[in-house]
Write a structure and sequence with these properties.
The chain contains seven helices and 19 strands. The radius of gyration is 23 Å and the shape is elongated. By secondary structure, the chain is of the alpha+beta class.
């Protein structure tokens, strides 16, 4: 995929990260699922709506539709990732031939106007395209004079297996928001010290752990200073994993605590090789996003104004964005990582412990308080999913 497209999608991820997470709430989102839909809208938009969409996309509007096609085709070739697009319209809605012909291959369907029937079809599409991880299409189907006239949707599903699985066990944080909670902790060790790096951003130091999967996609856990804003921590992590910001590996860091959750020193070991000990809480997080609540982030402020139409390149009938939502899920467990997201943009009518022999370098990194995560395509550095964890998986109580 083109570097310019990767940068554009990653910029939207960073914008979303800066606006989305709150300190008290966990979240997961994927700009990679939303960006192509915004691009397809931009290709048929006019006036201020076209300008705002192009600004959010980071590319000229005239390039948006072919770039969306290229991106979706590239996503379809990524191992471990499944992607799909869909378009449904009311039978009486005329579409501009040039716009509809330029859409990427995918589902084409008709909205019957029967809410129950349409809901069944759309929910079935979401379930099938995400292997059951997302059960409902994130769209409201209003009855009455303002029905949904057109619906664009995308689905992304990630399924990764770790090259080196974790060991599962009980854990308990001794300080921070999770102190005293029985946590389902994942542990392992490696000789590759530089799987952990430290970068610096507006919120201070950020520690990043790279967890390598058996496909071309890896997951990076991101831990900031205790009082740092989640948006700042994720923003620094995004810049580091996309190599826009330098990050220093553990092998080059001094002894002590050079990053959040990280301690480096000398350990006694059976092997002369250095050792990195990893401990993190398992997590599962779900989120529902109403994108119109932050319409400016996504270039949808003017497009959502139903006082007139904004998409003459899509249909000669006036259309305005009536709904834009995303449902997302992520799970990080001992054997791998799963993530899925369904994004839907609907348009309605607009008015017009080893033996002890060697002293060697050792490091331990612990994620036992709120932290972020980033799923990254290893070759292109495209960000496929991002999120913030505030409620980790608890350790199951005994019988």
């Amino acid at each position: 995929m083109r570097n310019s497209t990767v940068r554009a999608v990653n910029r939207l991820t960073a914008r979303w990260a800066a606006a989305a997470p709150a300190a008290e709430a966990g979240t997961v989102f994927t700009a990679a699922g939303l960006w192509p839909l915004l691009a397809l809208l931009a290709g048929g938009a006019a006036g201020p709506a076209r300008t705002e969409l192009a600004e959010a996309l980071g590319i000229p509007a005239e390039d948006a539709t072919p770039t969306a096609r290229e991106l979706l085709a590239a996503l379809g070739g990524v191992r471990g990732l499944r992607s799909a697009t869909g378009l449904w319209t009311r039978e009486d809605l005329p579409l501009e031939p040039g716009w509809s012909a330029a859409l990427p291959p995918g589902t084409r369907g008709t909205l019957s106007g029967d809410t129950d029937r349409d809901r069944e079809v759309l929910d079935g599409w979401a379930r099938e395209r995400t292997d059951g991880l997302i059960e409902r299409m994130p769209v409201t189907l209003p009855e009455g004079p303002d029905p949904v006239r057109l619906l664009l949707a995308s689905a992304l599903t990630l399924r990764l297996s770790w090259i080196q699985p974790f060991h599962e066990g009980y854990g308990e944080a001794h300080q921070g928001p999770w102190a005293g909670r029985p946590l389902h902790m994942l542990r392992r060790d490696t000789t590759l010290l530089d799987r952990v790096k430290v970068a610096r951003g507006p919120g201070g130091a950020v520690t990043l752990l790279e967890v390598v999967a058996d496909t071309g996609i890896d997951v990076h856990l991101v831990l900031g200073e205790p009082r740092a804003r989640p948006g700042d921590v994720l923003g620094t992590g995004i810049r580091a994993v996309t190599r826009a910001l330098p990050a220093t590996g553990v092998s080059m860091l001094p002894n002590g605590a050079p990053g959040p959750g990280l301690r480096i020193g000398t350990v006694v070991s059976e092997s002369p090789e250095p050792r990195l000990f990893i401990e993190t809480a398992a997590f599962e997080v779900r989120a529902e996003h109403d994108l119109l609540e932050r319409a400016g982030v996504f270039g949808l402020e003017t497009a959502a104004d139903a006082a007139r139409g904004h998409f003459p390149g899509i249909s000669p009938e006036p259309l305005a964005v009536g709904s834009a939502r995303q449902t997302a899920l992520a799970r990080f467990h001992a054997r791998g990582f799963e993530a899925a997201a369904v994004t839907a943009v609907a348009a309605a009518a607009g008015c017009a412990a080893p033996g002890r022999r060697y002293r060697t370098r050792g490091a331990k990194v612990t994620f036992d308080r709120p932290f972020g995560f980033l799923a990254v395509h290893r070759t292109s550095r495209l960000l496929l999913a991002a999120g913030w964890i505030t409620d980790p998986v608890g350790y199951p109580a005994g019988p």
